[in-house]
Amino acid sequence: MFRLLALVAVALAPFTVSAQDANAYNRALSAFNGGELDTAIPLFFQVSEGNAEPETKGKAEYYLAQAFARKGLPVSAFVTYAAIVKAGPQHPSYLQAVEGLVDMQQQLDEQNLIPSLLNQAYTDEVRDRWVTLPKEVLARINYLVGTISHRRGRLEEARSLLEAVPADSRAYAQARYLLGVVLADRRFPGRPGEGEALDQSALTAFQAVLEQKGERQLKLEETRHLAMLALGRLHYGRGEYKQAITAYESVPRYTRVWDQALFENGFARFQDEDFGGALGSLQALHAPQYAGAFQPESWILKATVYYYSCLFDEVKTTLGAFEQVYEPMSKQLEPFIGEDVELIAAFNLVASENRRLPRPVYLWLRNNERIREVMRMLARVDEEKKDILGTSAWRGSALSAQTATALEDVRSTLLQVGGTLARSRIREAADNLRTFADQAEIIRVQTALDEKDLLQEGVDQKALLTRQSLYRPAMPGASWNYWKFQGEFWIDEIGYYQYTLKRGCPARQGE
Predict the structure, then answer these.
(1) Given this model, what pLDDT does residue 65 score?
(2) What InterPro entries does the record point to (predicted)?
(3) Dihedral-angle region of residue 85 (phi above 0 means left; psi in -120 to 50 means alpha; beta otherwise)
(4) Could you tell me which residues come within 8 angstroms of residue 161 by beta carbon, excluding any fewer than 6 positions away?
(5) Coil, helix or strand for 355?
(6) Angular region, 206: left φ>0, alpha ψ -120 to 50, beta rest
(7) With the CA atoms of 382, 383, 384 and 385 taken in that order, what torsion angle do they form, in degrees rounded to the nearest 10?
(8) What is the rounded distance in angstroms from the CA atom of residue 127 to the CA atom of residue 124?
(9) Torsions phi, psi for 179 (to 5 deg)
(10) Cα(511)–Cα(506) distance, rounded to whole angstroms?
(11) Residue 259, CB-side half-sphere exposure with 13 Å CA sphere
(12) pLDDT score of 219
């Protein structure tokens, strides 16, 4: 008898545990449906961590993520969905978790971790299952995974993914913009033989972005501005400088990429032999409103414009200004570009209040889209961790501790991503300064040689310049007024400057 009771107890134990978990799951589901999330979440967590049958346990994990999302804890929801996706197709809530992960990506606007996770999960093994997802979810997956393929240089793969985003998707404009960037990339397979066709396809993709209207498209205005900039770059690369100028000048004033458009427009105008227009773009870029901008190449372009006009004094003045502004920066960056700089230390240089980096470099780093994204996500993680630990109903529980630990893991990963980006950009800044310092030296030497040649030829350059007159630039239209620049920068004039230049080069035979 004694032995029989023991056997019965062993036989009933699994049933008892399963029944308890089923009861907890049902209570959690009832609380979830009633909006009692503080009650539902710990119950779903209990079932997901317990010994329930796989089907019940899997559903509890999925509803735990759903409950986190409803409670306004999207990072915790993302972590929970991610665990299900990593478990693989055998998980009973696998496809629902993929869909939830995509929703959290949009809600958080997270551009690093979730796209990478989707890229890892989107294998040949699951492809046939993923195509059964809602059309919009699959479209956004193709776009997000396409961004990863592009970053990693897998351009043909990126093209296939981005072309799979249909026109009725909310991610269509973003996908078309990135598709154009991919097709215009000089590294895309098939160039130069297929270069013309690829360029035309890229132009069509950018135009498709500009034709989008309404509020349905995600980040439409920002994407349109990027497409305008990309159009300018494509035309510039093709030697179509007038079209490039039109594209650059279509970027709205004071938007995030306007200063970059001003700079690149200076190059387009220079190549179009509109030296006064090139200097006008740079005049705007060098206004006090952009005093903190990191644009070393703009001074090299300015010196080059003066050099081609044989205005050698202006060349030397410009190169002097470049050295005064940027030479100290090179020395200031030296401690931060070695191999021994740790990733978190590199990120902290950017994320914390600036005390060590040159201010223009610091602002340039913080303006990087992906670094800004990491900083924003870190703030969101910290806020969410505070909420988790501060919820009185969960305080001291395994749920609270485990979720906070998971958020700390996300934080650590973000710091590694941010550190990699920051260290790479700091080195890029240092490399740029070295490159442009070398170019400045070449221009300085060539200027001295040309001055010597003119002296040996007996050219009186001062007399040559004195005989020339400066004229008002042509007015673009009847609605324009001319106002001579007198050293003051007015905000409504920035971006509309036009120089007129004398030419210090003697006329050569045949000119």
Answers:
(1) 98
(2) TPR-like_helical_dom_sf
(3) alpha
(4) 142, 143, 145, 146, 149
(5) coil
(6) alpha
(7) 50
(8) 5
(9) -60, -45
(10) 10
(11) 16
(12) 95
Distance CA 472, CA 465 (A): 17
Give the Å distances, CA to CA, from 161 to 135, 140, 143, 168, 174.
14, 10, 7, 16, 12
Q: What is the predicted pLDDT for the residue at 18?
A: 64
Among 93, 131, 97, 134, residue whose Cα is nearest residue 117 = 97
502: three-class secondary structure by DSSP: coil
Question: Residues with Cβ < 8 Å from 136, sequence gap 6 or more?
Answer: 169, 170
| Residue pointed to by tokens 């776009």 | 143
At 10 the pLDDT is 36
- pLDDT of amino acid 494: 85
In angstroms, rounded to a whole number, what is the distance separating the alpha carbons of residues 329 and 8?
A: 79
Q: What is the pTM of this model?
A: 0.90
Separation of alpha carbons 38 and 49, rounded Å: 17
> Is there a contact between 318 and 302 (Cβ–Cβ < 8 Å)?
yes
pLDDT < 50 regions, the chain: 1-17
Backbone angles phi, psi at 468, to 5 degrees: -90, 150
Half-sphere exposure of 411 (CA within 13 A, CB side): 14
Helix (H, G, I), strand (E, B) or coil at 358: coil
**Other CB atoms within 10 A of residue 314 CB:** 18
Tokens describing residue 65:
């993520």
What is the reported pLDDT for 16? 43
- Model pLDDT, residue 266: 96
Maximum C-alpha span of the chain? 125
How far, rounded to the nearest angstrom, does the alpha carbon of residue 245 sit from its chain's CA centroid? 24
Length of the chain: 511
Token readout for 191 is: 């160039």
CA distance 154 to 147: 10
Distance, in Å, from the CA atom of 124 to the CA atom of 122, rounded to the nearest integer, reads 7
Amino acid at residue number 158: A
Contact 321, 287 (CB under 8 A): no
Q: Is-contact 154 124, C-beta < 8 A? A: no
Instruction: Identify residue 91 by its one-letter amino acid code.
Output: H
Q: Is the peptide bond before 42 cis (omega within 30 degrees of 0)?
A: no
CA 93 – CA 89 distance, rounded (Å): 8
- Residue 133 burial (CB < 10 Å; 0-12/13-18/19+)? middle
CA 215 from chain centre, in angstroms, equals 21
The two tokens of residue 355 are 């005390």
The token pair that represents 330 in the structure block: 């090179």
Rounded Cα gap, residues 320 and 327, in angstroms: 10
Nearest to 67 by CA among 93, 91, 38: 38
Provide the token pair at 359.
Answer: 């201010």
Cβ contact 497:284 at 8 Å: yes
What is the pLDDT at residue 276? 93
Of 327, 335, 325, residue with least CA distance to 356: 335
Kindly tell me the burial class for residue 378, based on how many C-beta atoms sit within 10 Å of its own C-beta (0-12, 13-18, 19 or more).
middle
